[in-house]
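Issue 218. Parser rejects a valid record. Input:
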Amino acid sequence: MATQTSPPPPGASKLVNAYTNGTPAPFPSATPKGGASGKLPDATLVQWLRDMILIREFENRCAQAYQQAKIGGFCHLYIGQEASAVGTIGAVNPDDPVVLAYRDHGHALARGMSPRACMAEMFGKAAGCAKGKGGSMHMFDKPHWLFGGHGIVGAQTPLGAGLAFASRYEWEVLKRGVDGSAAKKKVALCYLGDGALNQGALHEAMNLAALWGLPVIYIVENNRYSMGTAIERGTTMAHDLSAKAKAFGMASLEISDATAPGYPGGEMNILAIYDLFRPFAEMCREKQVPGFVDLHTYRYQGHSMSDPQKYRTKDEVDGIKSRDSIELLSLHLMHERKCLSEGALQGIIDECKASAADSLEFAERAEPVGLEELYTDVYVNPQPGLSPTREYGHGAKNPLL
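Output the parser choked on:
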């Protein structure tokens, strides 16, 4: 995408370009006017920056712990995609339900989960958000209306429709929330990777959502690769994913370089994500209809920690890193809004590094899941004789509750 840029002022990006291998992002000469982000207070954008840096630092710590065999199982990092979660979650209400795929640490932190609870879950400890029983791919946080990551590709998409059904039922039929709160219109966010586009469950869910008018927004975090397969090699209409929505008569939105003209960094710019996504989400909320979003993004790391990344070049990755979302927002706050000094930026970075380190230390000290606890929470209503070897029951209270 061609954008009007000029070199960053000397030293302006010194603190943040450590995230981008020293390649400075384009310094914006102007940001499009009229977007919803322009009306947000400085504090909100600074908080978004803090959230993105925390996610980056948290994931760096996860990578370190995984390489040291302190984290087992699969581990899918969100490094590079931070603006996707923070920008879209920041555009909806705190009690709008959210459901995720298995690259879910970033969304959990963006939604407000404690880094300690998140890291303890990574370590399989009882203090984790799912009491250590879920691990990396299953970040649940009921108080923050986060209904978990799911390890089966596309498995969360029918649940997204179900959460939207429940939300509309509360508003339209019960006239109140199940918790006694006042009835109001909600939207459910259901995140999926581009690899899930070819799962039958998604198409069944989209069909029902369109038939029943369920306010679920399917957000495809299109990072170009389904594991190691380029999207155009495994998905039809990869150049125009709105075709998937048109088949079901659903409204669609593309967030990409092509649809974000004038935003420095294009699809990597969190302001572009927010400005395009918020009105779309509010339309789905007001009309109580489903939506489909093709959100272009990019992961800097492999699909998982075991991915050798032989399907793409270093030059390709470095090209995306040159317009890193963290650096773009930092430059915007320092040189356009003029609400962030280099000293304050360094303070945020130090704070996030300390928080990530603290979560790691907490997880290492936390108690492991006890043997008896492993036989609990298998069934909502456990009955006698369900297992020939052990009776199931309800376990210890979740620390997040």
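Fixed in the parser; the record now loads. Residues 138 and 149 are 4 Å apart (CA to CA).
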